[in-house]
Design goal:
Elements lengths: L2 H9 L5 H5 L4 H4 L7 H4 L8 H8 L4 H10 L11 H10 L1
Helix pairs in contact: 6-7
Length: 92
């Protein structure tokens, strides 16, 4: 194994085969697949518009939204930011 790959694995930035196999099936159909991660996990003050546009046309957004509201995930999921999902969860 190369030093660079080993460094990625040690840092937790490289997906292991086990992690890939545990990913939900919706990821295969998600409109965000292959798009820049930064669009969905923006820095404070950065635009979320690209993520919201992609999510608006996604065939798995409804399924993903339900999972995101139940979880505590950061970032834009199913077109909604974490704070909006937390508000929905608190209102339920």
């Amino acid at each position: 194994m190369s030093d660079a790959l080993n460094d990625l694995i040690q840092s937790g930035q490289a997906a292991t085969l086990e992690a890939v196999m545990q990913r939900p099936a919706w990821r295969q159909k998600a409109a965000c697949r292959g798009k820049p991660t930064a669009w969905f996990f923006p820095e404070v003050g950065d635009s979320t518009e690209k993520a919201k546009i992609i999510c608006a046309g996604c065939t798995v957004a409804v399924e993903r939204h339900a999972q995101a509201v139940e979880g505590s995930e950061h970032g834009i999921w199913a077109g909604t930011p974490a704070r909006a999902r937390q508000n929905l969860k608190n209102a339920a």
